[in-house]
Amino acid sequence: MESYKLIDIGNTTAGFYDNGKIFYQKVEEFKNIFENDKFYYISVNQNIKNIKNGINLEDFLSIDTKYQGLGIDRKIAIKAIKNGIIVDAGSAITVDIVKNHKHKGGFILPGIYSIIQSFKNISPALNMRLEKKINLNKLPQNTNQALNYALYKSIILPIKEIQKSQKIYFTGGDGKLLSKHFTNSHYRKKLIFKAMIKTINYL
Fold this sequence. Notes:
The chain is an alpha/beta fold. The chain has helices spanning 72-78, 112-122, 143-163, 175-179, 191-200; strands spanning 5-9, 13-18, 21-26, 39-43, 54-56, 84-89, 92-99, 102-110, 168-171, 185-187.
């Protein structure tokens, strides 16, 4: 069985895949531990675009879509499924619809951390604490509940509007947390890496 060493570089975090094992670094502390091995990578980070001795999969990837400006992370993710919705919940939350391997379109939402920061920028009184369990069918009764309610609703409602009966696949740092608010949903921690492997196998 062929072994794979992969790097997925986002805006704040770099994910490493070493033959099934996954670990992470902050982008500002990025150090390529695979520099003496054959490895493949993708990067949406403008500061880390060329990695010595690495093979950039963006050079080999084409996607059937009318969407202009689609990032490499979204292009790779689309390769992972035939039909459904992919939600990559990282620094930003990207939502993409795929039908018969064709990308039909998508949209971008602020990530959870960005929303938390935006509240804090309005007023120190809005320095919220993220609640991982919240009843979204009940009106909030204090400020922290109100902020959490707004945060979750602002993310969940636009996605549910397009989901209908489609399967929805979550990945990214906050993917597992958000997936619990949807039916017919699946959390796939390794989705991006599996899609990278699939792309490599077609090279």
